[in-house]
Amino acid sequence: MSQIRVFVYALIIFLSQFLVVTSTTTFPCVSDDDCPVPLPPPFAKCVDGICEFFIKAQVEK
């Protein structure tokens, strides 16, 4: 009986990861100033009327 409970818990945890990844919120915009200010490291840019969030890659010298 406890094995079934552990299996169900593991299944819920596994499937909830897909819900987090697939849920997205779009912000309409006209310019980059319309996009919300995210916390570092990502930054927002207005692309085709929708705010897109990017992560700057650090280049090592």
UniProtKB/TrEMBL annotation:
Residues 1-23 form the signal peptide. GO terms for molecular function: metal ion binding. Residues 1-52 form the Late nodulin domain. Keywords: Signal. This is Nodule Cysteine-Rich (NCR) secreted peptide. The lineage of its organism: Eukaryota, Viridiplantae, Streptophyta, Embryophyta, Tracheophyta. It holds the Pfam family Nodulin_late. The keyword Protein transport does not apply. The keyword Ribosomal protein does not apply.
